[in-house]
Write a structure and sequence with these properties.
CATH topology of the largest domain: Tetrahydropterin Synthase, Chain A
Number of helices: 10
Structural class: alpha+beta
Strand content: 15-25%
Order of helices and strands: HHEEEEEEEHHHHEHHHH
Number of domains: 4
CATH class of the largest domain: Alpha Beta
Radius of gyration: 44 Å
Number of strands: 8
Length: about 280
């Protein structure tokens, strides 16, 4: 609610001028005196609440009603506006809250709570300071959630932790007319020694996976070599052609000259290889 009510002040000024003019100029005291009295009472009776505000009005100590937004009137000296509730979305930060996880790991957690007053009457009458109460509830709920979660789960499933916190805080603040819209865990601080241990563990896991993949690849290659050996065993000519192709590829890429014994050259002759194979089978 505005601290300076400009429309009420302007109206009070006009009434005051009119009353003074009636008394001094027109000599109409019976008209001027009520105008001056009205000018005094207008700033105390005409109130303005902004679009996002709700004013709680008490009459002689009892709740009269919730007023706003816009203009509203109260009875001076009988009614009073005790509190103005801001119904916009507000935030509460929880910085570096220390707690132990379920597996007894000390962590520091930063979080932010988004909340909004949906029932101005209950927020004004049910609790003294709902903003501070929300901060306290958020701190205790965060500690409870961390204590019930494993560190690995807290790090890997942060969205699930946010949702659990929202439900826990919302259940407690609903009685005060406050809705918990969302909770976001911004950071989870882990001790440096534990960070090093987790880094080594992650590195060991990656090395383990790499070795497993390498072993699988070697097994697959060995299986292909076994199949190739069976093929070449039944067809020596194919083996000789493959050997000649390897030699050709080697000389083509490196541009080098390879000296080979005559016996090795003869052995690479497919006709000779076939003859030797037939002779071996005949013998």
């Amino acid at each position: 609610m505005r601290s300076v009510n400009a429309p009420a002040t302007l109206l009070a000024g006009l009434l005051l001028l009119a009353g003074v003019a009636c008394i001094i100029v027109l000599r109409l005291t019976i008209v001027g005196a009520p105008l001056i009295l009205l000018a005094i009472l207008v700033p105390q009776s005409l109130m303005i609440a902004d679009q996002w505000e709700k004013a709680v009005v008490l009459r002689l100590g009892r709740l009269k009603g919730i007023r706003g937004p816009g203009w509203f009137f109260i009875v001076p000296f009988i009614d009073r506006v005790t509190v103005v509730i801001d119904q916009r979305i507000q935030t509460t930060e929880i910085n570096a809250e220390q707690a132990l996880t379920k597996d007894t790991v000390p962590v520091g957690v930063d979080a932010i709570v988004f909340w909004q007053v949906h029932d101005a009457e209950r927020a004004a009458l049910e609790i003294t300071d709902y903003a501070r109460a929300i901060q306290r509830v958020a701190q205790t709920s965060l500690r409870e959630t961390i204590g019930a979660s494993l560190l690995s789960v807290l790090l890997a499933e942060r969205r699930a932790a946010d949702e659990r916190l929202k439900q826990v805080i919302g259940a407690k603040t609903a009685e005060w007319g406050v809705s918990c819209l969302s909770v976001e865990i911004r950071d989870v601080a882990i001790p440096i020694g534990l960070q090093d241990a987790m880094s080594r563990q992650a590195q060991a896991e990656r090395e383990k996976e790499a070795r497993i993949i390498l072993g699988s690849a070697e097994a697959a290659v060995a299986e292909q070599f076994r199949l190739a050996a069976e093929t070449y065993a039944g067809n020596p000519a194919a083996l000789q052609l493959r050997a000649m192709n390897i030699i050709y590829e080697t000389t083509k890429e490196r541009g080098a000259t390879i000296l080979m014994p005559t016996a090795m050259v003869d052995a690479m002759n497919p006709a000779v290889a076939v003859a030797l194979n037939q002779a071996a089978k005949a013998g």
